[in-house]
Amino acid sequence: MGEPEIYPAAGKGGSLEIRLIVLSVICLIAAIMDIYSCKVRNYLIITGVLTGYLFNCHIHGIQGLAVSTAGLLIPLLSMMAFYRLRMFGAGDLKLFAMTGAFTGPKDIVFIMVAALVAGAVIGGLKIILSEEREGPVKIRFAIPTFVGVAAYSLGLLF
């Protein structure tokens, strides 16, 4: 009997869990950045996109480039209208795109829906608990994005 493998020889099983942990940590850092500075810094987004591409190339081979690119483009193209209407900031859009580079096209849709639901709940609570009723309610959308990623990760891991 040999020693147990921490990183399976096939590379697929262990790298999935590691990928989800790394994505969750990056999204948590983005949420903290967004809370404290009202911005998600580009260096975090670029690091996340490159890491997502590396993970997908490791898992899917050269096809990982297409998986990451499709995952990156789906949020950019589908949510651009929200950005143009000032419902999302550029950082929110970039954070969704970075998340898509990690997860690919199939799973980013689930994360986007989960994040939008979380954002609606947070926004609704903010309206209910707010004493000021004038003007639009703004929330830091990196938090709902983190909630969407956490829901995705927990659903796949458990």
Please give a structural write-up.
By secondary structure, the chain is mainly α. The longest helix is centred in the N-terminal third of the chain and has 26 residues, at 12-37. Helix 2 (42-60) packs parallel to helix 4. The two termini are 28 Å apart. The chain has helices at residues 12-37, 42-60, 63-84, 90-103, 105-129, 142-157. It has one domain (13-157). Mean pLDDT is 84; it is low at 1-12.
Features:
single chain, 6 helices, 158 residues, mainly alpha
Can you summarize this structure?
By secondary structure, the chain is an all-alpha fold.
- Helical residues, percent: over 70%
Distance between the termini: 28 Å
Instruction: Give start-end ranges of low-pLDDT stretches.
Output: 1-12
* Strand percentage: under 5%
How many domains make up the 3D coordinates? 1
Q: Secondary structure elements and their pairing?
A:
Blueprint: H1 12-37, H2 42-60, H3 63-84, H4 90-103, H5 105-129, H6 142-157
Helix pairs in contact: 1-2, 1-6, 2-3, 2-4, 3-4, 3-5, 4-5, 5-6
